[in-house]
Specification:
This protein has 5 helices and 5 strands. It has helices spanning 14-30, 49-68, 108-121, 133-141, 144-147, and strands at residues 36-41, 80-87, 94-101, 125-129, 151-152.
Length: 157
Amino acid sequence: MSNRRPSGLRAPSKQTERQQLHDSWAKFLRNRNFQAWATLTFKHQSVTPHRALAIFKNWIHASNRKMFGSRYFNRAAEHLSWAVSIEAGTKKLHLHVLLTVKGKNLSREELNSMENLWNRKHGIAKVEMVQFAEAVSAYLTKVTAFNGEIELSKNFK
């Protein structure tokens, strides 16, 4: 038996695999009803990806408490659902986030509050309402071509 590949068949290149991963994530996220997107940066360059996710989850928890009260987790529908990816390229590490709440529209005031929560402690947040639904999945998945990682909240549907 030969280990040779039949002529005409080639292994997919890394570029092809990365593009397929990106396209799969974009397709998966495209049909979700995201209401807001965010870019979250950090003051300190020494933040590791693991620490960045921990800080992000604490920010989500604080935002949920502010919007829905301290027992928000007892009401399954009443809290933020999210998808997050980490971009750690040549620039400072930062997060790309998509946000929604089932059965509720996020207000501009709530998004401002979320920005302020982040800005006071961690760095700079830009949290905006979704204007073009088609663009939000591409926004989050732009970095998956490089690291392939997106984390979803437990209540993500």
